[in-house]
Every structure is written in structure tokens, then in C-alpha cells.
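Quick illustration, no need to memorize.
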Amino acid sequence: MTQIKAKIYIIHENDEWLIPLRIALEKLDVDYEEWSLDTMVVNIDDTPPNGVFFSRMSASNYTRNHLHSNQSTSIILRWLETHNRRVINGSSVLNLEFSKAFQQLELKKHGFMTPKTIVAVGTNKIMEAAIKLNIWPMIIKPNQGGKGLGIKLINTINELDNLIKQNLIVFTLDDTWLLQEKIPTDDDFITRMEFVGGSFMYSLKVYNKGSFELCPADVCEINYDESHPVDEGNNIDLDNQPTFFIEENPDIKLANKIEGFLKDNNIEVAGVEFIKNNDDEPVIYDINTNTNYNLNAEKHSSNHKNGMEEIASFLKAEFKKYNTNMTLR
């Protein structure tokens, strides 16, 4: 039987974040095509091409003036799924990527500890939500966020009132906000567990250094100094500590539990972020299904894993399965 030609399609909206994946795919000689989605025309009566489709759409799309990416990607993914195409991180995953409130609800349903949260739909409801939460200090974050943009630590109700009156609460695409407790912790870092193909890859520690913008992509890390070794002990020099490094002894029990959560939600590639509270319990606050990786951290890790190469290998294997199934039909 003649084999049906197909290829891998990468759905995205940010060329800069795609560069490392391009390198990894080309290294493995993978036939792929990019679909950069924002404004578009699509004939939904057409039949999609054959292949494996991987969505790398990011919730931070609107910060790059790609305001239409929500709708374009949602329509394209549903179109592909209607035609039974192999879609990795499909439409249901996109809904979670675009809503931190949805993420919190799903995490709670699966028994994970999450921050106490009240949602304000509309900027005019932020004060009311904060008064109801009444845990100070608290954090305000956009429902559709990304890279930590728009997240602020609020110490008092008067401080929040002043921010609103001075229009210092930044624009978001859906004008929906999460008011959350600030998790009390003795740690100076958060942890981000990375999963590819639904399987745990590694655990990344991110030293916040006073910032909420914790994007792990190489373009996000500044002033990295390789001359300072990573110290996982108790005497960490935070001024010279690399922002990102891979944990040598990750919490495998937690990773296994998260794997089950990802499977139940059809999430195949993701980074899951948590912080340990003062009782040493992980509190999960974010799921990023458009995960990026830090080459400096990977280079200094003993596990020798490269995130984008892991994704490229996973895509290549899924493409082989898809081609085999198409040939047998």
C-alpha cells in the first residue's frame, strides 16, 4: 500500500521561542512546517493536511500584539480534531493555557494544594475580590498571563486601591484577575517540573531574586556567570546564583502524581510550577503548556537532557506512529 505523505506541523505565534526547537528538529532530520497563527482566514470546509500537529501557543501572545491568537488557534485545533488528526496539546489544553482559574480548578479536583484564590471578572471587581480574600500580603495576577507579566505583590488594601486609581493594573486580554494568598515560605526559589510526552524529564529550580518574571527561556536569563558553581546547600550566594538550575534530587513521588494529572487532562508537554510552604508542602500555582528550556541549566546538569531535543524526539516518534497507522488503513 502506498504510504500517505505527511509531516509535523508546529503551531505557534512567537518566532524567537521557536529557534531552539527548529535546531533540534533539523538535527534529527525531521520534516516539519510552521503555522504562525494570529489574524487569518481558514476554510473550515476544507480537509486539513495529514500529519502530527503540535501546539506551542502561549498565553502571553497578547503581550506581543498577537491579540487574535486565542481565537485563531482555538478554531484551528478544533478543526484538526474534528478530522481526527493527531494533535499534541489540543483544544482542551489550550483552554487551560489561557486560564489560570481553570488550572486552579483542575489542580484542586486532582487533590493538589493550590493558593487560596478569588477571581475578579472585570477590573472594577478587583477591590471586592481582595476584600473577600482578605489575606495580606496577597498576589494579583492576570487570568491569561505569561512570563510573570502583570503579577504584583500587594501588601495592603490601600496599596491596591492606589494602584487601581493610578491605572497601574496592566491591560489583559480577558480583563479577568486572580487574587491569591502569598504562600509563606523560607525558600528563595520556585520549582518547575518539566514533562515531555506526559513523562517527567527534570525539575528546574528558579531563583526569583525578587521578580515574578520567571520565564526559563535563554532569552529571559541575564547576567549568567558560569564561574559561580551551583550550591544546593544552605549557603547560597543569591547575588551570584544562576537564576535557573536543574535539581539533582527531584521529588519523584510528586512528579508521578503530576504525570497522572497531565494524562487526565490530555497534556503532553508542560512545565508545572510550585513553591514549598513553611510546612514543606508543594503548592502548585501554574501550568505552562508552552514550555521553554534554559540551555545553561541543562549544560550544567548531570542528567544531560536537552528539553527541545526531547520534544523533537517525541514528535519524531509520534510522527512515525501516525505514518504507520495511515499506511495500514
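The first helix runs from residue 15 to 27.
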